[in-house]
Design goal:
The chain is α+β, with helices and mostly antiparallel strands and about 425 residues long. The protein has 13 helices and 11 strands.
């Protein structure tokens, strides 16, 4: 297949089934790390971006420029909205803020958070990993947004004929009709068993008519992307996204040597019966061996700044500008949705605050993480916390985040 050809408008269920048959011939599922059985990995690039693509740092006067924004974060720590926080801000092609505050936990002798602290991104994984994989495959003519999921993952079809109408576009836009979330980990003890359970989750709505943010849909999207790429999600991301961008502190399943740099996210006495540190907080992702399309990536604020810089540049070495525009534009249907393809856009009221433009895009993470990018202002803001420590009941970050975003934008000269 010529990887330089544009995507073809091919959406036939039968034709996609034939195209993807080789990717499913050896086994229903496959190990959490590596290539599909009998397959060689697709390699979409052979060189890394040239040095000119790197993000320039200009943080010398950050404490003065962003004094109000940092004060808001200090108050958040003091009022226990989160134990610690690490942030990065890029503006006009430069890193203008990189700051860390607080500690790993609320204990007096807990380690301090630094700019090198690695956080569980939770659902920010959906854009940094999964959606970017979809963008890359689309760029190289390997993914048709209107292809039916059941043509790539036939096990999804089932007896409900509506399931054959669910497309990859719907999964990305959270309009597939699948429910938001299910505690699949309570009835599945292994990766294969949980994927089987996911494949059998019934539709809650007709496909394409209702918007409902769905982890279930993204788990299935990840399965489809792995089959198209002929490689597991973590391997593909490492080879095609993280390594080429120089995101050296970004990975699924961080090695044990990183544990001392990763704050705990939960004292999980209900399911895993241990403190969750250095492993994914999300229970379904945990049963999926830490590699899932909806959660599982760990990263630093500085690495996410690099990623945001690449999205702002719409760098054709990573993803074509037209593809960035397509995936980050709010969908016209279902009515009232703020979802783009994988990405989210501002809604009302919005956690983005008052100043991000309507064309901005980003994502939130359950553990208290967020990444928001505004191409009009050439601005990105990364906010990483472990607000779920010691449990997930604390929602105070919802008050802190928009105030922080506003303070950043106003420091850079935004007007209401």
């Amino acid at each position: 297949m010529n990887l330089q050809q544009p995507p073809q408008a091919e959406s036939s269920y039968e034709r996609w089934g034939a195209m993807c048959a080789t990717a499913m011939s050896d086994a229903l599922f496959y190990p959490a790390r590596g290539n599909l059985p009998g397959q060689s990995p697709r390699v979409l690039r052979i060189t890394n971006p040239p040095p000119s693509h790197s993000l320039l740092s200009k943080v010398d006067n950050q404490d003065q420029l962003f004094s109000l924004a940092f004060q808001i974060l200090e108050e958040g720590v003091a009022h226990r909205a989160f134990p610690g926080v690490s942030i990065a801000v890029t503006h006009l092609g430069k890193l203008v803020a990189l700051k860390a505050l607080g500690k790993f936990t609320y204990d007096f002798d807990s380690p301090a958070v630094t700019t090198e602290t690695v956080f569980d991104l939770a659902s920010v994984s959906k854009v940094v990993a999964t959606t970017t994989v979809a963008m890359l495959l689309f760029d190289h003519g390997l993914l048709d947004l209107d292809a039916p999921l059941a043509g790539i993952v036939p096990e999804f079809a089932g007896e409900d004929k509506r399931r054959r109408d669910v497309t990859l576009r719907m999964l990305l836009a959270h309009s597939s009709g699948l429910p938001a979330y299910e505690k699949l980990y309570l009835r599945a003890a292994t990766r294969d068993a949980l994927l089987q359970e996911t494949l059998s989750v019934p539709l809650k709505h007709d496909p394409g008519v209702h918007s409902e943010y769905s982890d279930i849909g993204f788990i299935l999207l990840g399965l489809a992307l792995e089959r198209i790429a002929e490689q597991t999600l973590d391997r593909f991301c490492q080879r095609e996204i993280f390594e080429p961008l120089g995101m050296i502190h970004t990975t699924y399943n961080p090695p044990a040597s990183w544990k001392s740099r990763i704050p705990p996210t939960a004292d999980d006495q209900a399911f895993r019966k241990r403190i969750i540190q250095g492993e994914v907080q999300d229970e379904n992702a945990s049963v999926l061996d830490g590699v899932a399309a909806h959660a599982g990536v760990f990263s630093t604020a500085s690495d996410l700044a690099i990623f945001a810089h690449a999205m702002l540049r719409a760098d054709p070495f990573i993803v074509r500008p037209e593809t960035v525009t397509l995936f980050t534009r709010s969908q016209s249907s279902p009515a009232g949705t703020s979802q783009a393809l994988g990405w989210d856009t501002p809604s009302t009221p919005s956690q983005t605050g008052c100043h991000f433009s309507q064309s901005s895009f980003g994502h939130w993470g359950y553990t208290g993480t967020s990444l928001w990018i505004d191409s009009e202002r050439q601005l990105s803001v990364t906010l990483l916390t472990n607000r779920t420590w010691p449990d997930c009941s604390n929602q105070a970050i919802k008050e802190v985040r928009p105030r922080f975003h506003d303070a950043i934008a106003e420091a850079l000269g935004a007007s209401r």
